[in-house]
């Protein structure tokens, strides 16, 4: 493990997601401890997207912005909101020069699948339909996210393809949660890795799916056809249960004719990019921004 990251492992609180309400509070406390991002080079606005129910969003608009991404926070589909994602959404906007539309989707277990996917798709549709009002190019809208949010982004891309919905320029998938089956080598062997353990992952999938069987929109690794999807950037962490399902997904996209950039970050674990003092974390955030900037360039 990267020594700068390893020094923080003992400081992480143990969490198993058996009580999502308690864990949401801890998650918010961790996010609040992150150094505040610099938003001097952008405008930040809270809005509500009309839907059933309405969806809160926070829009980060860099000066001279280029393209946009509908961005979905991590937290296992159980934790997270606009405030916990603020440090990362603002940094992504600054690093990429893109408008970041951060989505406060509904959380499980109170709102299991497909609530979060419906919210993400509603925001994507709204952004495309109101592109002129928002000052966006409807042909330069991406979807992306971290962890569970990246899985929702991948599901959104599948749904948009199948329903001939809004055009998606790019998928920015950072350590996505894609496969509820947890049968890969990394899922079977990384059972007690920092931040994301097997028990925590199992609980998150259980809350997210509720009583529904998993399909490709909930667990995109289950999709049998990945053709016709937008180009993707997939980032993985070496010591992460999701690692192998993400690499397999990237390979399957490539084999389906989809252009993919895959980066496996050595010495890292799930969510370790949040440790901003580590040099490798700074590189991860910078590369997410650079990949998005390249994808949305004219």
Automatic annotation (TrEMBL):
One of its GO terms (molecular function) is hydrolase activity. Pfam families: Abhydrolase_3. It comes from the Bacteria. InterPro entries: AB_hydrolase_3, AB_hydrolase_fold, GDXG_lipolytic_enzyme. The keyword DNA-binding does not apply. Keywords: Hydrolase. Residues 69-273 form the Alpha/beta hydrolase fold-3 domain. PANTHER family: AB HYDROLASE SUPERFAMILY PROTEIN C4A8.06C (PTHR48081), ALPHA_BETA HYDROLASE FOLD-3 DOMAIN-CONTAINING PROTEIN-RELATED (PTHR48081:SF8). This is Alpha/beta hydrolase. It comes from Streptomyces phaeolivaceus. The lineage of its organism: Bacteria, Bacillati, Actinomycetota, Actinomycetes, Kitasatosporales.
């Amino acid at each position: 493990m990267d020594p700068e990251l390893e020094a923080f492992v003992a400081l992480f609180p143990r969490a198993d997601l058996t009580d999502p309400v308690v864990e949401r509070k801890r998650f918010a406390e961790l996010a609040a401890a992150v150094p505040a991002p610099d938003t001097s080079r952008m405008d930040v606005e809270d809005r509500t997207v009309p839907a059933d129910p309405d969806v809160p969003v926070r829009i980060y608009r860099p000066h001279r912005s280029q393209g946009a991404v509908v961005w979905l926070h991590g937290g296992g589909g159980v934790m997270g909101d606009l405030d916990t994602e603020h440090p990362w959404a603002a940094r992504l906007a600054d690093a990429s020069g893109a408008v970041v539309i951060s989505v406060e989707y509904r959380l499980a277990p109170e709102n299991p699948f497909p609530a979060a996917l419906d919210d993400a798709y509603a925001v994507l549709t709204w952004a495309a339909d109101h592109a002129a009002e928002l000052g966006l190019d409807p042909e330069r809208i991406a979807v992306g996210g971290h962890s569970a949010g990246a899985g929702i982004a991948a599901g959104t891309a599948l749904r948009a393809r199948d329903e001939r919905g809004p055009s998606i320029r790019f998928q920015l998938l950072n350590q996505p949660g894609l496969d509820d089956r947890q049968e890969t080598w990394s899922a079977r062997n990384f059972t007690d890795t920092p931040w994301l353990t097997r028990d925590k992952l199992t609980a998150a999938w259980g809350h997210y799916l509720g009583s529904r069987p998993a399909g490709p929109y909930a667990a995109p690794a289950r999709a049998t056809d990945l053709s016709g999807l937008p180009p993707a950037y997939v980032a993985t962490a070496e010591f992460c249960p999701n690692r192998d399902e993400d690499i397999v997904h990237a390979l399957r996209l490539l084999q389906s004719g989809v252009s993919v950039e895959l980066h496996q970050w050595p010495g890292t674990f799930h969510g370790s990019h949040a440790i901003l003092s580590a040099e490798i974390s700074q590189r991860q955030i910078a590369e997410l921004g650079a990949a998005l900037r390249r994808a949305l360039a004219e």
